UniProtKB/TrEMBL annotation:
Matches recorded under PROSITE patterns: FGGY_KINASES_2
Species per Swiss-Prot/TrEMBL record: Actinomyces lilanjuaniae
Family matches, as InterPro entries: ATPase_NBD, Carb_kinase_FGGY, Carb_kinase_FGGY_CS, FGGY_C, FGGY_N
Protein name per its UniProtKB record: ATP:glycerol 3-phosphotransferase
Superkingdom, natural source: Bacteria
SUPFAM superfamilies associated with the record: Actin-like ATPase domain
Family: Belongs to the FGGY kinase family.
Domain Carbohydrate kinase FGGY C-terminal as annotated: residue spans: 258-438
Length: 489
């Protein structure tokens, strides 16, 4: 008898993945395909929407090619805040995906900005008025299509990546957005979990053009018209990638948070069943089932991006090569890298910040810069944890590709002064989405959850004393201050 499973899709910034997850949480098969990213102008980050879809289909095909059974359902974990517009009739993309890292709408956000508006945005949505979030990107795409004033004969759809994938999977039958993804748009009222008319008016995005907001384990429709899957497979769960990781790690109280180390980094801790605003970080809807679960989150714009950039600059292989070079020195010898390539995210929200390297001397080496690149990631995550006011946080669960670096994870524990627990499973976002799908199908969620399994995972304890930690953090603060000087100051 074939083992029942859910097909979990994980559409990230640089890779599309597919996992077949059995009822006991076992991964039966997996597939992946790269997704190209383009940087057509400084601060612009784009992807080809059709290439995103094709990569996801390729990953599905690779995963299902070794199985002889049809999945019981499909679940989705997706990159958040990125926006795509498409034709409601054909499903054809009407422009590029404007990536979550993209800062082309910074001037528009600054034009909107006032103390009163920033307060209103924060209270309604839990977010900062920043180009990372979806609404300014939606306005940009709709302006480009001449459709910002409203629906153009019902032909234009605009949404986040989950909306795009669900629409493609269901043959355009479903035009919905999962509530947690909707909470990252600057358009969702966190209290009512409905589109906010004042926010739609502020950003110039007609409420009528937006997809329907649904729960994380809602009826998203069923597959139709696909070569890679038969008709009638239900889409049973959707979560933004960071939310899926939080769910998969089993973080349900403020004592346990998670950091995802990808192209950027997301640090999130649960915040209960009622929204509450915290300065410098976002309040977001983690997921919505029978009742909402909120979270506090800070987003680092450049983490994996920073390490990849340093690897290219230093002429070494990204990942292992950079790690090995960084390990040739005991520390960064006072060198600091602030990778503000498109400005800074949480907790600074400063899109005018610029990338800087400080503390360089005649004795600085390639190894010191490599070490500074790794430390820049750990410092940025530590900044977010500080802003979260996470005094109750006892352990930070870690996932994502960069967690393969033992040096980075030890540095993270040292700068936090807290244990860091690296997940035993690298695909925790896809697994978290699958587990959300379990709740829809009535399957028992396995215990312990994948992200809670100590076996195969790695735990790092801080070894720096408080004085060393304080000195390192002060050096970083000085480098940040230089990064945040206005250009030409």
């Amino acid at each position: 008898m074939s083992t029942p499973y859910i097909l979990a899709l994980d559409e990230g910034t640089t890779n599309a993945k597919a996992l077949a997850v059995a009822r006991d949480g076992t991964v039966l098969a997996a597939g992946s395909a790269p997704v190209p990213v383009a940087y057509p102008r400084p601060g612009w980050v784009e992807q080809d929407a059709d290439a995103v879809w094709k990569a996801q289909v390729e990953a599905i095909r690779a995963c299902l090619g070794v199985l002889d059974a049809v999945p019981e359902g499909v679940a989705i974990s997706n990159q958040r805040e990125s926006v795509v517009a498409w034709d409601a009739r054909t499903g054809a993309a009407l422009g590029p995906v404007i990536g979550w890292q993209d800062s082309r709408t910074a001037e528009f956000c600054d034009w909107l900005r006032s103390p009163e508006r920033e307060f209103a945005v924060s209270v309604a949505t839990g977010l900062s008025l920043d180009p990372m979030f979806s609404a300014p990107k939606m306005r940009y795409l709709l302006d480009r299509l001449g459709a910002s004033a409203g629906v153009v004969d019902g032909q234009v759809r605009v949404g986040t990546i989950d909306s795009w994938l669900v629409s493609r999977l269901t043959g355009q039958d479903s035009y919905v957005i999962e509530a947690g993804n909707a909470s990252r748009t600057l358009l969702l009222d966190l209290s009512t979990l409905e589109w906010s008319q004042p926010m739609c008016d502020l950003f110039g995005v007609a409420r009528e053009i937006l997809p329907q907001v649904v729960a994380s384990n809602a009826d998203f429709g069923s597959t139709r018209g696909l070569d890679v899957l038969p008709d009638g497979v239900p889409v049973v769960g959707v979560l933004g990638d960071s939310h899926a990781a939080l769910f998969g790690h089993g973080c349900r109280t403020p004592a346990e948070g998670k950091a995802t180390y990808g192209t950027g980094s997301s640090v999130m801790v649960p915040a209960g069943a009622q929204p509450s605003v915290r300065r410098g970080v976002s309040t977001t809807l983690a997921w919505l089932t029978e009742e909402p679960v909120y979270g506090h989150e800070g987003n680092v714009v450049a983490s994996g991006t920073a390490m990849d950039w340093a690897a290219r600059l230093l002429g070494v292989e990204a990942g292992k090569g950079l790690d090995a070079l960084a390990a040739t020195v005991e520390d960064a010898a006072g060198v600091s890298l602030v990778p503000a390539f498109t400005g800074l995210g949480a907790p600074w929200w400063d899109r005018q910040a610029v990338g800087v390297i400080t503390g360089v001397t005649a004795g600085s080496s390639r190894g010191h810069l490599a070490r500074a690149a790794l430390e820049s990631v750990a410092h940025q995550v530590a900044d977010v944890v500080d802003a979260l006011g996470a005094q109750d946080l006892t352990v930070l669960h870690a996932d994502g590709g960069a967690t393969a670096s033992c040096l980075l994870m030890q540095t993270q524990a040292d700068l936090l002064g807290r244990d860091v627990m690296v997940s035993a499973d690298a695909e925790i976002s896809a697994l978290g989405a699958a587990l959300m799908g379990f709740t829809r199908l009535g399957w028992e969620v396995p215990t312990p959850l994948p992200g809670q399994q100590e076996q195969g995972g790695r735990r790092y304890h801080p070894v720096l004393d408080e004085h060393q930690r304080s000195c390192a953090r002060t050096r970083w603060s000085h480098a940040l201050a230089r990064s945040r000087l206005a250009p030409g100051a």
